[in-house]
Design brief:
The protein has 312 residues and is α/β, with parallel strands linked by helices. The protein has 11 helices and 14 strands. It has a 6-stranded parallel β-sheet with strand order 1-4-3-2-5-6, sandwiched between helices.
Length: 312
């Protein structure tokens, strides 16, 4: 998949889009949940022979410009979004900056200047609730009428529903915040995943007989509430049952929030390696123990809750 970090100005690119127009989906697509997946399937279905598919999205959430105090944590990092689109079969991805100039575009200007003139779009595919343009006054009906007058098309994809409610990134964030990772996985259509490189921690786990990996997670990534979770850890193509502790290690008077994973059937070194954690299932809240002995006894009880394969 080809990435663009600005609207193309190359005349050759525009000439190519005249010969081979784009079918494009527009949105933030945080989490690439089952609703987003339906939109991308509609995008691929709309493509004619010789055309290419694309996604237009933003490096930062639009609220970072509009209302910075309300920016939600990310279900998926930017890299995870890129990989999700590539796996889905999208050909190109346009990553724009949502700034004052972009936010000030009228709905007509967005369609004409961005989609048609700059990108050569034949088909726009969006969710049925899609709003766009300054003050979000544009909707799917406007896009359909405006593009149809130019021999182009806009498709509004019906909302994906689960348990009688609309699937949305907001709903997934609420499920993660409530430690209901089973629901989050169902809404995502795939396991909620945390990945990061393993760094050096305090080193207590090895000395206590419970070797844990301190996973460095991107700061923008949304994590479940503090607590202990059963997980599946994936390393070098292999799955391992395990536990992860998210929190500040109150027994040892910690202050920094950390993610410490313990792979129950792995004895090697993970320092500097990437570890992928999924299948989060809540075991217990984080707590302070009066002694290391009490902590170790609880860890044994925590480990007894883990089964393999994990939590399908």
């Amino acid at each position: 998949m080809k990435l663009h970090y600005a609207l193309p100005s190359d005349p050759e690119y525009r000439a190519e889009r005249v010969r081979h127009p784009l079918c494009i989906a527009v949105g933030v697509f945080d989490g690439f949940h089952i609703g987003h997946q339906v939109i991308v399937r509609a995008l691929l279905h709309a493509r004619r022979a010789g055309e290419r598919t694309a996604v237009l999205t933003f490096g930062e959430h639009p609220l970072a410009h509009l209302r910075p105090a309300e920016v939600p944590p990310q279900i998926a990092t930017f890299a995870e979004r890129v990989n999700a689109f590539a796996r889905a079969g999208v050909d190109e991805m346009f990553v724009l900056t949502f700034d004052h100039a972009f936010a000030s575009l009228s709905p007509q200007a967005f369609l004409d200047e961005v989609l048609v003139r700059a990108l050569g779009v034949r088909v726009l595919v969006v969710g049925a609730n899609f709003r766009f343009g300054a003050k979000r006054v544009g909707d799917v009906a406007f896009a359909q009428a405006h593009l149809a007058a130019q021999g182009r098309e806009a498709i509004g994809v019906p909302n994906a529903m689960l348990d009688g409610e609309r699937v949305s990134s907001t709903r997934i964030r609420a499920a993660i915040a409530a430690a209901d990772l089973a629901l989050a996985d169902r809404l995502l259509g795939m396991p909620y995943t945390v990945r990061g490189s393993v760094g050096f921690g305090a080193g207590r786990g090895h000395g206590l007989g419970f070797p844990t990996a301190n996973v460095t997670v991107p700061p923008e990534k949304m994590l479940p509430p503090d607590g202990v979770y059963a997980i599946t850890g994936r390393y070098e193509g292999h799955d391992h049952p395990g536990l992860v502790s998210i929190g500040t290690n109150p027994t040892f008077d910690g202050t920094a929030r950390t993610v410490e994973a313990w792979l129950l059937d792995f004895n090697g070194s993970l320092y500097g390696e990437e570890l992928v954690l999924r299948d989060f299932r809540f075991v217990r809240e984080q707590m302070r123990f009066d002694s290391v002995t009490a902590l170790l006894a609880q860890m044994e009880r925590d480990a007894a809750t883990v089964t393999f394969p994990s939590f399908s």
